[in-house]
Amino acid sequence: MRMSSRAALAAATLSCATVLAACGSGTTGDSGSDGDLSVVASTNVWGSVAQAVAGDRIEVESLISEPNADPHSYEASPLDAAAISDASLVVYNGGGYDHFVDDILESIGDDVPTVEAFALFESGEYSDLHSGHDHGTSTDAPASETPTEDEAAHDHAGDDHAGHDHNGVNEHVWYDLATADAVAHAIAEQLSELDPDGAEVYRANAADFHESLHSISDVTTRIADTHADAPIAQTETIGHYLVLSAGLDDVTPTDFTNAIENGTDPSPASIAETRQLLLDKRVGVLLYNPQTEDKVSREMRSAAETSGIPVVEVFETLPEGVDYIQWQTRTAESLAAGLDSAS
């Protein structure tokens, strides 16, 4: 799990005091001088989910929206702090991924309503969207929430696949459809409290979002049915939950992905092992994050392309011109197409 520059963040947070004094400090239900509700998301991934729920009633602001940005290394500005302080609702990933949000919330000391995706992920709630896998915590469900037989088929907590959550906890939970579903419904409930007149709209939009998620889970279910336990590789574990929901086997050397995820240099031995895995065509696809590419990851992509292994790109922010549903559907379809071509 990589962290942003804390030194730069501390400087930005300290300079926020002047900005916040000018902007005014937000309180629960407040949203700026015009009286409208304000929803702020850390990235445009969660901003897209929030916008799907808010609909036409609220314009959601995403602090990180640049397609080539790397949220791990994002440095918060005083304007970011002001936006969070004045927000009616803040939606963010959590789990240390966008730590600048936690730092700003702590520094301003305000009771700003929030929806944290990682906290919902850790709750381990079951749905019909493949939430049966290991969330890094106990996943015992109440009797009324016992997973169906189909969901249980996707529970990798007790098998060899669980070992591929290389750090024990993987914070990239936007690839977990059940978490996206939970975030949408949590946003709907928060907005319903802040804007009772729009409650029916928010809840209906969250229900529509849930139904749209099935366009993605239908693809991952087909992958699990046709390519069960197919070996794949990743340059880093961004797509961990996509891999789990599709029933695939990430065989990338643990030392390699741990180093990439922690922002350190992989050992020569792990680089050689990963390269040989690709050159020997022992995997069906390579999942590749172009937002954090470096010499090593580019070398792995080159090895995959040399061997004719399809490369499936996974991102940390939304590509331009698509929403969450379109993005995740395209990614799942790209994964399916890659595996089909490798069969």
From TrEMBL:
> What is this protein's record name?
Zinc ABC transporter substrate-binding protein
Gene3D superfamilies with a match to the protein in the record: Nitrogenase molybdenum iron protein domain
- Entry similarity comment: Belongs to the bacterial solute-binding protein 9 family.
Q: Span of the secretion signal?
A: 1-21
Supply the Pfam families for this chain. ZnuA
Residue ranges of region Disordered? 129-168
| Stretches with biased composition (Basic and acidic residues) | 151-168
Which PROSITE patterns does this chain map to?
PROKAR_LIPOPROTEIN
Q: Which InterPro entries match?
A: Bact_metal-bind_prot9, Lipoprotein_PsaA-like, ZnuA-like
Q: Keyword Metal-binding on this protein? A: yes
Q: Where in the cell is it found?
A: Cell envelope
Keyword Transport among UniProt keywords: yes
- In its UniProt entry, the species of origin is given as Rhodococcus artemisiae
Q: Which UniProt keywords apply?
A: Metal-binding, Signal, Transport
